Structure formats: C-alpha cells, structure tokens
Amino acid sequence: MSVKAKYQGVLDLGQELNIQNGNVEEVDGILKVSGTAGTQYEKNLMWDKIKEVGGELPQDIEADIKVADETVFHRHMVASGDTLGKIAKKYYGKAGEYHAIFKANGDILDNPDVIHPGQELVIPHLS
Known about the structure:
Distance between the termini: 42 Å
Number of helices: 5
Shape: elongated
Oligomer: single chain
Radius of gyration: 17 Å
Largest sheet: 3 strands, mixed
C-alpha cells in the first residue's frame, strides 16, 4: 500500500474541510502534505485524523497545516436542537465551557439559554 493510499482518509477530510492551497506529494516513502485550514479547530481535526491513521508520532507523513483565521477557535452555524452546552461539548469536550461561547457572542446573544438556527457563533480560544 502506498503512503498516499494509507492516508487517503486525511486527504478526504482536507477536501471536506475545504483546506486552501493544498499540496500533496510522496517523496521517498514520506507523504508531504501542506495547506491552510480555516480555523484552529479544523487544523486539530486534520491532526487527529493523521494520528488516527499513523499513530501518535507518524514517521511516514510530514504535515504543514497553517490557519487562516487565528482570531477564533472556530465559527459555528447554529442548527436546530443546538444548545450552548452541546456546542461547548463538541469544541471543548466540556459542556460547562458554554459561558466562554456566550461571552464571546454578547453582541448577538442576550440569554445563554436562547440561540436560534442560522446564527453564526464565534467559538473562542479558551485561555
């Protein structure tokens, strides 16, 4: 199996996330991947996928993934059934971090229990 075939799931995820300026080449058995993710969250997803395929310290891939918007961790489009707690759980692993999202979106949110489908929320970096 070629290294490119081994990491095809990573390449597919890059397409799904619309990684910009992407470049993929195989050199001497090492897959060299580069590109720009929209946010840190998307970059983290790419690294998680690389580790899922190649292990914690993969030796057969080199990835240079930059981030286009470093001012936020991610931007989330509210869907039906979302709550700030569910959103916090998705991005931070802890529902209790919802307050950080509420605070970062004070310009559009008045109540942490009231969000609406279609709102775009800033998901801030946790300090």
